[in-house]
Amino acid sequence: MTRSPGSRGPSRRPGRSAARPAAARRPAAPGAAQRTRPPRQKRLTGRAAVLGLLLAALMLAYAYPVRTYLTQNAEMSRLQQQLADQQVRIERLNERYKKWDDPAYFTQQARERLQLVLPGDTAYRISGTPATGQPDADASGRGKSAGEGTWYGKLWSSTKAADKPRRK
């Protein structure tokens, strides 16, 4: 196999043509069986089985971290909502706190809640029937049924009821 000095391509062996492959040129051996049908293909090759096992292992390996991620994501959303609710609550409490700095509001609350009066003012307390026509809650048991009184009134009425014999 020698190359000629002017040739640039690979050297060719004499007798071999580039147009036909070597297997096409060889005659079949005498008595060799010729295949008439194509070979049967395997349903699952070894590579496909290994690839399937690898994918199943990866899915199992990633299942727990994904579950943890989703759980933590839901927890973060819940905590962010709680934080927003707490911030709204803090704002409302700050507004209420600022109201107490106002002397007029402070005086009004002292009069309403504690019935306090300023020096020189006269305090009046009205008892009895209010203008709506309903009995006053401070009235001493008038207009109340036996079950609505004070605890000792209930006890006394149950003692009286126990002393009376039942009629059949």
Question: Explain this structure to me?
Answer:
Helix content is 50%, strand content 0%. The protein has 168 residues and is mostly helical. The longest helix has 55 residues, at 46-100. The chain is elongated. The N and C termini lie far apart (137 Å).
The gist of it:
The chain has 168 residues and is an all-alpha fold.
How many β-strands, per DSSP? 0
The biggest sheet, with number of strands, parallel, antiparallel or mixed sense and barrel status, is: none
Query: What is the N-to-C succession of helices and strands?
Result: HHHH
Q: What fraction of the residues are assigned to beta strands by DSSP?
A: under 5%
Question: In one word, what is the shape?
Answer: elongated
Mean pLDDT comes to 78
Poorly predicted residue ranges = none
Count of alpha and pi helical runs? 4
Helix content: 40-55%
Q: Which class do the helix and strand fractions yield?
A: mainly alpha
Subunit arrangement of the protein: single chain
Radius of gyration: 52 Å
Could you tell me how far the N terminus lies from the C terminus, measured between alpha carbons in angstroms? 137 Å
Feature tags:
4 helices; 168 residues; elongated; mainly alpha
Which secondary structure elements does this structure contain, and how are they paired or packed?
Blueprint lengths: L21 H4 L20 H55 L2 H12 L36 H13 L5
